[in-house]
Amino acid sequence: MINSGDTAFVLLSAALVCLMTPGLAFFYGGLVRKKNVLSIMIQNFVSMGIVTTIWVLGGFSLAFGKDYHGIIGNLQYFGLRGVGMLPNPAHGPTIPFLAFFVYQEMFAVITPALITGAFADRVNFKSYLKFLVLWSIFVYIPLAHWVWGGGFLEQMGLVDFAGGIVVHASSGLAALASVFFVGKRVMMPGETKEPHNIPFVALGTGLLWFGWFGFNGGSALAANGIAATAFVNTDIAGSIAMITWLLISWTYEKKPTMVGVLTGAVAGLATITPAAGYVRPWAAAMIGLLAAAVCYLAIQVRIKLDWDDALDVWGVHGVGGILGSILVGVFAVSAVNGTSGLIQGNVHQFLVQLLGVAIASAYAFGVTYLILKVINIFESVRVPRDVEVRGLDSSINGETAYDL
């Protein structure tokens, strides 16, 4: 039977996750140089249209249709055939199947948009559109099936409450692959890589944090105790990570920066995502603390190695998603949601999490690099130098963010 409270909760959560994509556009838009604000914002917004179309025309079915050898689903739900007002017992037994569809659609929309922060300022928009389609089909959809749709990782016992592997690790490793393929940005004399509009970054962080309650809490697919646990854990981890990042960066950089505070919060939110519905609130605090320390270290390593991940997608989302997915195997307790980790003596779950993270991360990195290589055969992924120097907004979009 359909439960109206569960249905309302999941639909509201879907709307919250939908809001995260515009939030991401503001977050990334504020971090880039002002000549490239619109170019990255359109990359984020256009994902809403293109990925939704893919999701309707077979993407959802391939992710959540009947399993085929643990690798991919079938096309039984092509064009939303069979996705209606009645529940599907395997995907939310108390909500309409359509509610599950639209909730999962919002995850599929934001994941490739996360990657854009890595190659900001230097990728051709037409090439990006091709990348968006191919990455959604060949990376996101298989991973969603492997982890959530009955695929081989789920069969192994891997758990990922709200997308530490499917969303954050996959986009973070894809970001790293794109950085290696595309190369470093062109910097003219006198130019800096500093954010051009930090209030935009703050606005984007606020929208992301707000949406994250639907991202994590809604993954319970019911208005119940697990949803409440995930909701509270999300807030705790984001808050603790924000404070910890502030203290670390203040100590080493000698200034309490706003961007540091905001980045720390996002790192904590990304890291708690896979564990939100499996751990106690005290463990969420520990995860937030570890998220700040490990992700901050990852960014310092990235700087040391001179990888031009423009907006630190790998260091925040990739490393955070991997860390959180592994920590599920440490802090999960069976009393919360039936899964236990090392603190309850379950070594097997910890090893499964390690193996699953390794497989998914390697797959996302390798296939992303291959996709970019194939696109580049037919059309240059990177814009010409003169376009990059002028800025993508005026050169490609024919618009400017500010006319003062």
Characterise this structure.
With 404 residues, the protein is mostly helical. The protein has a single domain, classed as Ammonium transporter fold (Orthogonal Bundle), CATH 1.10.3430.10. Helix content is 69%, strand content 0%. It is built from 15 helices and no strands. The chain has helices at 4-31, 37-64, 97-115, 125-148, 152-156, 164-182, 198-217, 225-253, 258-272, 281-305, 313-331, 334-337, 347-378, 385-390, 392-397. Helix 4 runs antiparallel to helix 6 and helix 11 (313-331) packs antiparallel against helix 13. The protein is globular, with a radius of gyration of 20 Å. The relative contact order is 0.15. The mean pLDDT is 97.
